[in-house]
Design goal:
Blueprint lengths: L2 E5 L17 E2 L2 E4 L5 E6 L10 E6 L7 E4 L9 E10 L8 E8 L6 E5 L4 E5 L9 E3 L10 E8 L5 E7 L2 E8 L6 E6 L12 E9 L10 E6 L1 E4 L8 E4 L25 E4 L7 E6 L9 E13 L7 E6 L5 E8 L7 E8 L8 H5 L2 E5 L8 E13 L29
Parallel strand pairs: 2-25
Antiparallel strand pairs: 1-16, 3-6, 4-5, 5-16, 6-15, 7-12, 7-16, 8-9, 8-15, 9-10, 10-11, 12-13, 13-14, 17-27, 18-21, 19-20, 20-27, 21-26, 22-25, 22-27, 23-24, 23-26
Length: 418
């Protein structure tokens, strides 16, 4: 089992244009087809206490419905995807069919979840026209202002492709399409990337994707956002300077995404100003609450790297476990302004013994590793997102009274009373 996306949208970061030249950055999500009255932004309306933000996909205009496209693409070349997310229609159901979630493919037709206004149900489909072929209903009648949870499984490892889904654990059904797809391309949320007018406001949260068939159904997930909160064990900390934050408390320079749903805080950061491929600053994160019957399923981190100048450099970002062993190299390469300022997303590989609450709480983020610094690498903002699978607490039933066997006529009753 390999989780490759944990996205609770706790960073609240989105860009309303494909490329923001003003700040020279690639956002975590690009937004397309937005009109002046259309918004894609963080919402404080969430499915539960674990979530600080959901993503609000809103189109009140006559323009095409806005779409989010994940810019750090973890899905390239995937042929099997098991997924889970929650959604809610705000105030009213959409007034037109709404293409809510799409796995884009290089060729052929990718799978998608489409809300159908004809019967107010969600459909698993391979196109968005709902013409009676290549789609099946996977929910009962949906209503506004109610959180729903979706499980789905896409398989393109054979011909025909199949797309199985269910809502709230019921109405499971499978759509199929005869085609051979070898390369997935992107993830889209919200609507089409065409000029089709689609109206309807909805929220999405707790999106988790896994690349194995056996993971289906993932079931309800809670994605917790954990901010940097402590120093770890540094290596050659003298090779770095802290800008903003509280002196010596390195995490305070990368613990704020700023305001405005995507405006990163470029007044606070950690900068490597002395060359050293083995040098790094390490920070830890807030702890999960006590999980009870819930269990850790996977983790990912959203972070931003940029540079002081246009000179090429060679920055690295890693995730390490509580014992200091590197689990994942999140980024390596040039992060100077000759490239872009990168908002990045990276999955964290499971520790050797598998995930546990203590393993998730012990994760560390390392920054540095510059082998060349004509442009000094700068590390701004990071948030760890941990996917927790909802469990069912054990139910202790009251002891039942033991019934004594009935006496048998003509026989001796040897039952014992105890």
């Amino acid at each position: 089992m390999a989780v490759f996306l944990v996205e609770g949208f706790e960073h609240g970061s989105v860009n309303t244009t494909a490329y923001n030249t003003a700040s020279q950055r690639i956002p975590l999500w690009n937004a397309y087809n937005t009109a002046a009255s259309s918004t894609i932004a963080g919402s404080t309306t969430t499915p539960g206490s674990w979530s600080a933000l959901s993503f609000d996909v809103n189109d009140a205009s006559s323009a095409a419905n806005p779409s989010l496209v994940l810019s750090t693409n973890p899905i390239a070349a995937q042929q099997t995807v098991s997924g889970s997310f929650r959604f809610r229609f705000v105030s009213a159901l959409p007034s037109t069919n709404l293409e809510m979630f799409v796995i884009g493919t290089v060729a052929g037709s990718g799978p998608r979840l489409v809300f159908n206004t004809t019967d107010d149900k969600l459909y698993a489909a391979f196109d968005d026209n709902l013409d009676g072929t290549e789609e099946v209903a996977v929910s009962g009648v949906l209503v506004a202002d109610t959180w729903y949870q979706v499980d789905f499984l896409w398989r393109a490892d054979g011909d025909p492709n199949t797309f199985k889904a269910r809502v709230d654990g019921a109405n499971e059904n499978t759509a199929s399409l005869g085609q051979s797809i070898t390369t997935s391309q992107n993830i889209r949320i919200g609507g089409t990337t065409t000029t089709v007018t689609q109206q309807g406001r909805w929220l999405i949260d707790d999106l988790v994707l896994d690349d194995t068939v056996a993971a289906y159904p993932l079931g309800p997930m809670k994605v917790y956002g954990l901010a940097p909160s402590s120093n770890g064990t540094h290596n050659t900390s003298g090779s770095f300077v802290q800008v903003g934050g509280t002196g010596g408390s390195w995490w305070t320079s990368i613990d704020s995404w700023g305001s405005g749903g995507g405006t990163f805080n470029n007044a606070e950061y950690i900068e490597q100003n002395v060359n050293g491929a083995g040098a790094y600053i390490e920070v830890g994160f807030e702890s999960l609450p006590s999980l009870g019957a819930d269990t850790v399923f996977g983790a990912g981190i959203a972070f931003l790297i940029w540079s002081s100048t246009t000179g090429a450099n060679g920055a690295i970002a890693w995730m390490a476990d509580s014992g200091g062993s590197v689990l994942t190299t999140l980024f390596t390469g040039d992060c100077s302004d000759t490239s872009e300022r990168y908002q990045r997303w990276g999955a964290v590989a499971a520790p050797g013994g598998g995930w546990s609450e203590s393993q998730a709480n012990g994760l560390k983020y390392r920054m540095g590793g510059a082998s060349a610094i004509p442009g000094n690498p700068r590390f701004s903002v990071a948030i760890l997102q941990v996917a927790v699978k909802e469990g069912v607490a054990a139910t202790v039933l009251p002891p039942k009274e033991r019934q004594l066997p009935l006496p048998v006529i003509g026989a001796v009753n040897r039952s014992r009373v105890y």
